[in-house]
Design a protein that fits this description.
Shape: elongated
Radius of gyration: 20 Å
Structural class: alpha/beta
Order of helices and strands: EHEHEHHEHEHEHEHEEHE
Strand content: 15-25%
């Protein structure tokens, strides 16, 4: 029986050795079967890891948001005969990522699952925010419709206040600015808002301010930049004056 290895990817254009440990790169280079959202991008990533790899001899399985249960199950015979690597388009597979279905399937059939160390934009943004790292929720994407998104933001803000919980979100990069504007209109002035952009790349930025102070600042250029949005309602004895 093979092992399912969960392979980290970079978060953007960066020096590979700065974010992927050498032992992880060696493990990746030893595999010959990969499941990913985009095989073309996976090939490019593998070339960065080791330009001598015989990629034409590898097997690339496509697992994305359009994959059916039958498509996912088609990966099982490869696990039955050897190791398989799962690669996300960015960061760690399984988080807001269709690879999670393959991981769940591997567990159901008794295959060993091994996560490999690499960058996670969600955890990096959380530890850089200054918010509560003991109670937090990654909520993925908010609703697209404005009224539903406003209602969701208010509910998450209420939960943050009641449970001392940090709330994390992502958005399609070209909608980042629209989400930020909605957060500034909806959230309480004293709620803390953190925006982490282009993590681990030369253009990286992380900034945390109360909503009322964000409103006084020129809005950051977030267009088409990978970003994580976080907010946190300070507890009464820690709320800014």
């Amino acid at each position: 029986m093979g092992t399912l290895f969960l392979i980290p990817n970079t978060l953007g254009e960066t020096v590979l050795s700065g974010v992927i440990p050498s032992e992880v790169m060696r493990r990746i280079a030893s595999l010959r079967v990969f499941a990913s959202e985009n095989p073309k991008n996976t090939r490019r990533y593998l070339k960065q890891i080791d330009g001598t790899l015989p990629l034409d001899e590898f097997t690339f399985l496509e697992v994305n948001e359009h994959s059916t249960s039958r498509d996912i199950e088609a990966c099982l015979p490869y696990l039955a005969s050897g190791d398989v690597g799962v690669i996300s388009e960015a960061g760690c597979p399984g988080i807001a990522d269709p690879g999670a279905e393959l991981v769940a399937l591997a567990h159901r059939h008794g295959y060993r699952v091994v996560p490999l160390v690499g960058p996670s934009s969600i955890l990096l943004a959380l530890i850089a925010s200054g918010f509560n790292g003991q109670a937090f929720s990654f909520n993925g994407y908010l609703p697209v419709k404005s009224n539903e998104r406003t209602r969701a933001l208010k509910n998450y803000e209420r939960q943050s206040a009641l449970e001392n919980r940090t709330q994390l979100f992502i958005e399609t990069p070209y909608r980042n600015l629209k989400l930020l504007e909605e957060m500034l209109r909806t959230l309480h002035p004293d709620t803390l808002l953190s925006i982490a952009c282009d993590l681990t790349t030369p253009g990286e930025s992380v900034r945390t301010l109360p909503v009322r102070e964000w409103k006084l600042q020129p809005l950051p250029d977030l267009h088409k930049r990978p970003a994580i949005f976080l907010f946190y309602v300070p507890q009464p004895n820690h709320r800014p004056k």
